[in-house]
Amino acid sequence: MKKEINRREFIQLTVAGSALCIGGSSILAFGANPKASRLISPGCRRSKVKVARIYMANPTNPWSLWPKPNLDLEGEIRFYEGQFAKLKGELYDVEFAVDELVTSAEQV
């Protein structure tokens, strides 16, 4: 493929590409607004949705904890419970029916 462009075309393309990168970053981040969440749950706020919150790990098998072999499972569960607590207002129509740690496939 031999397509030659002159200096004027090169500068025009460079300016257009730079403008897209600088000014278009907010356009490309479609719907991104860090101040207001647009989270809509599957129940569409008309009915409660039941969700199972399952933490999966096998503390007896170090490979199941990769890349954190010294993972504190209880601490990790507390961390995620805190994150869900922060979203409580947005998830008011979600009922977490199951909230447990699963350590084997038979428990599921």
UniProtKB/TrEMBL annotation:
InterPro entries: TAT_signal
Protein name: Twin-arginine translocation signal domain-containing protein
